[in-house]
Structures are given as structure tokens and as C-alpha cells.
Amino acid sequence: MTDVSYNTDTQEAEPTMRDFYELMKPRVMQLVVFTAVVGLLAAPVSVHPVIAFASILFIAVGAGASGALNMWWDADIDQVMKRTAKRPIPAGNVKPGEALNLGVALSGLAVMMLALSANLLAAALLAFTIFFYIVIYSMWLKRSTPQNIVIGGAAGAFPPVIGWVVATGSMAVEPWLMFALIFMWTPPHFWALALFMRSDYDDAGVPMLTVTHGRPATRRHILVYTVLLTVLAVGTAFTSIGGPIYLLAALILNGLFLKGAVDIWRRDEVMSEEDNFAVERKFFKLSLLYLFLHFGAILAEALLRPWGLGGW
Prior knowledge:
The protein has 312 residues and is mainly α.
């Protein structure tokens, strides 16, 4: 951890339930839950509603545990960065030890209960996901290499695989296609954020690509990854989890996403500073919609397939 202190001695009131809720990164948790649900429902095996609900609940708890542990470890740099300075620990609402205890307790609970409600393989994948996010990404990659978000993006890509394994108890190609969508989407998504938040990463000493290689190189990387993502996303339409609905969504979304990446690539530093990174901000917002609608299309294909309307 970097040598930055944060003050929790002035905390007078006990943390509220909202503080603990924010500690678990609810926005990230929502994405985890949604992609895990899609993975579960896209599987070719039906799951009892009670088992499905319980499994998704414990996957969400595992995601919340990861968020709490990440905030515990990153509390020093969270205080330095404007984007994260109001998080519960740097704001003084929750003590670091409380976040650590919550994260560890929820991790154990989530893995144990997923093993009981679903199967051991799903629980093992959830445990590995938490370990990967906290140890591999947060403790190691994030502060040591500009490839942090490239490799670390795997942590956010596991939920649909876990959802699939909850239903089937085994691996297959299809959940790894969903994994690949998230994995390839993550770098351009976060690099766009880093373009207009570079000062945050500079101040915190986090070696994002914008800090180590500069904005022009970051823009080129965004374009390259977006091209590769487009090939993957459109190609997925012709697999067993795709179909005409997904293909239409993929063509429209990837056309827009690719145009946004080209617009970013064409820019220069003077233009970016003058208009406050409007193109980068637009691309970042589009990236949120991009992933949600791709998985929404996969879900639509899965729900319509039993009626003979989804898939090819």
C-alpha cells in the first residue's frame, strides 16, 4: 500500500447500514448479478427457482465481499483520488478493520453457501474470483504494471461462468465466450475513464496506461482492443448462445463502439483539453450500455429459445 494516511480517529458515530452497503460496491455488484443470471439462464439445463435465487444471492454476496476487501486494501489511494475520496473508509465512516472483517466474513459465507445451494465447482470458481480480484489484481497488478486492468479484468469476467456452472455443474465453450466479452470490454472501458481522470492516477501513483505510456498510446490501445472486441462480439452471434436478436444488437452496438474508438484515436491533446474530454466521456458512458445490452440480448435469446423463437 502507498504511504498515504487517512484519518479515522475523528469518527464519532457508528457506521450505518448504508455505509456498509456502499462498501460492497453496489454498482459493480449489480453488473455481477446480471451477468451471472444471464450465464445461468443461457445454460441448456433448467434450475429450480429456489436454487437459482439462492445461488445468485450468494454470488452477489461474494461480489460484495470483494468490494469490501478492495476498499480496505485501496483505502490509501482512494483518499487521494477525487473519484473515490468519498468512499466509506477515506470519508471516515467505516474503519479499515471493519471493512476487512466484513469482507472476510462475507467471502467465507458466500463460498460455503454456494457450495451447499449449487455445487462445489461453482463455489470453487467464486472463491478463485474473490482471490483473483483481491490478491492478483488489487494487491499485485494494480500498483505494479500498466497491464493491471488487462489481466485484472478477468476477475469481473467470471460471473457468467459461475452462473453457467451453477446450472450445469460443468464447463463448456459458451460461458467462456461470455467471459471473453467482459474480458475484452474491460480495458477500453477503463482506459477511457483513465483518459479524463489521469490526474487521479498520477496523484495516487497507480501505473495506468495513461500514466506510463501517455494518452496517445492509450488511445491506440483503445482502438486495437475495440476492433478485437467487435470481432468477438459479432462472432458470438453465430454460436449456440447467439441468434438474430443478438446479431442485430451486436451489429448496432459494435458499430457505435467502433466509431467511438476511432473518434478517440483521431484526437490530439489540445482538442481533448479544450472540450474537457467530451468524446472520451461519451465513449465511457456508451461502454456501460454496450455490455448491458449484449448480455440482455443473450438473455433474450435464452428466454425465447424454448418457444422456438430464439437462436438459429
